[in-house]
Design brief:
Helix content: under 10%
Structural class: mainly beta
Order of helices and strands: EEEEHEEEEEEEEEEEEEEHEHEE
Distance between the termini: 24 Å
Strand content: 25-35%
């Protein structure tokens, strides 16, 4: 999973999480022993593969592979060829490069619930085009869980939560202010934490304690949406969100304390949260896991090998 700044992100700092700084927790599991034949160059290694093996994730979760060193454009088709995706039912998808160190594979549309997925990244002897060669393989397996979605209306001050197509609850929310609008578009949940220390200084909003936009708070029930600092959570400064309170955040989506705790218990990594009605525009695809903010034609322009159908698991 991605690790980013822990604050509601406004206009300051970087809005993108590049392959270089999108480091995930944990390490990829090795599926093969090192090759007895030494490659003709220093090793090409995978920093992380997300999702972690054995996990259950949401329908919008991409497979995200981060390399320790840049992969040259001329080598990407061959690298993609050696990262094979197998599933329990056929799924159409493709790789897309987020810069030169991160490649994501996502389905054309959301994953079907219940799909079992396996990635075999056999990098042994594979060149990154920059003088490095893979020395072993990696295997991750995971499962697509229930189809849980959250649809946020910024102007309507609501969040509708559905599970497998059925509405579960509609919650009152506040989103970003005019000065610090929330990202639009679909963002798959990166991770969640029961408490997060959030500061305005960490995202470039204000480091001046006398500023009305300064904050330094530890807040509960935090669902992480973007690397630039977007969360769905409870805020002590906006305890009763909704159209009546007319409060704006610094880019996060605020829920009441009880609703935030409930929502936290409903969602998992990879569940899509789709926000509409904000003037900011869609989050960049590499700002966390906002892969579905690119249309399919746009997605394919970042692929070296094009559309494919998964092999049978």
């Amino acid at each position: 999973m991605l690790v980013g700044v822990t604050a509601c992100g406004g206009g300051g700092g970087s809005d993108k999480a590049s392959g270089g700084d999108a480091k995930a927790s944990g390490t990829p599991s090795a599926s093969a022993s090192p090759s007895p034949t030494k490659p003709a160059g220093p090793p090409m290694l995978l920093d992380t593969i997300t999702p972690q093996t054995g996990t259950t994730v949401g329908v919008a979760m991409p497979i995200s592979v981060i390399f320790t060193d840049p992969v040259a454009a001329k080598a990407r088709a061959n690298v993609e060829k050696h990262m094979k995706i197998s599933t329990s039912q056929p799924v159409v998808g493709a790789w897309h490069w987020m810069g030169d160190r991160r490649a994501d594979w996502r389905p054309k549309t959301y994953w079907p619930s219940g799909t079992k997925v396996k990635i075999d990244a056999d990098m042994t002897g594979v060149s990154n085009g920059n003088g490095r060669y893979g020395v072993h393989g990696y295997t991750h397996t995971f499962t697509i869980g229930d189809d849980v979605r959250a649809d946020v209306s910024v102007t309507g001050h609501t969040m509708k939560v559905t599970r497998n197509g059925q509405t579960v609850r509609t919650l009152s929310i506040n989103a970003g202010s005019a000065q610090y609008p929330t990202w639009d578009g679909t963002m798959a949940v990166i991770d969640k934490q029961e408490k997060v220390h959030m500061t305005s200084c960490s995202v470039g909003i204000s480091c001046d304690k006398g500023s009305p936009n300064f904050y330094d708070l530890t807040l509960p029930w935090d669902v992480h949406l973007t690397q630039s600092g977007t969360y769905v959570h409870y805020s002590t400064g906006d305890p009763n969100p909704g159209s009546g309170s007319a409060r704006g955040s610094h880019g996060c989506v605020h829920l009441s304390l009880s609703d935030a705790k409930w929502f936290y218990g409903q969602v998992k990594q990879g569940d899509p949260v789709t926000i509409t009605g904000s003037p900011r525009g869609k989050a960049p695809a590499d700002n966390g896991y906002a892969d579905f903010n690119l249309g399919w034609d746009q997605w394919l322009t970042g692929s070296a090998s094009g559309q494919e159908t998964t092999t049978a698991l």
